[in-house]
Specification:
With 139 residues, the protein is mostly helical. It contains ten helices and no strands. The chain has one domain (3-138). Helix 7 (71-92) runs antiparallel to helix 10 (119-138). InterPro entries: CGCAxxGCC_motif.
Length: 139
């Protein structure tokens, strides 16, 4: 994994899911704006503090790069997702954005508190890098 590439994408102001998709843009062969649109709704756990956007981005990448409309590739994709989920929960104890941050970033107050307490700055980059590393293991 290229940490400089991740940092550059984060500096662009992309959400966690958008960073994960854009990281793999050369392999996916879709326009970067399309990738950003595909993952725009993943931010802040789907804008309700739900499933981590980095995970949702990783699922999307795996679907785009592993699934070929046949049972064999679907099974391989599912195995990758199971492994990703298992390793993510080992690291964070949960895959729910609000629980990971201790605040709901989809609310104005929750976002402000998570930012001021440094939770987004410390948790989200770790979630993004873990999601990317897990996808790379499957490719």
């Amino acid at each position: 994994m290229e940490i400089e590439k991740v940092n550059k994408l984060m500096e662009e102001g992309l959400s966690c899911g958008q960073v994960v998709l854009r990281y793999f843009e050369d392999k996916i062969n879709l326009d970067r704006k399309v990738l950003e649109k595909l993952s725009a709704g993943f931010e802040a756990g789907g804008f309700n503090g739900g499933k981590c956007g980095a995970l949702l981005g990783a699922y999307t990448v795996l679907g785009l790069l592993k699934y070929n409309f046949d049972d064999e590739s679907k099974v391989e994709m599912i195995k990758c997702i199971y492994s990703l989920n298992e390793n993510f929960k080992k690291e964070f104890k949960t895959d729910i954005c609000e629980q990971m941050l201790g605040k709901n970033p989809s609310t104005e107050i929750g976002l402000k508190e998570a930012m001021s307490e440094g939770k987004i700055q410390s948790t989200c980059p770790r979630a993004i890098t873990l999601a990317i590393e897990e996808v790379e293991k499957c490719l």
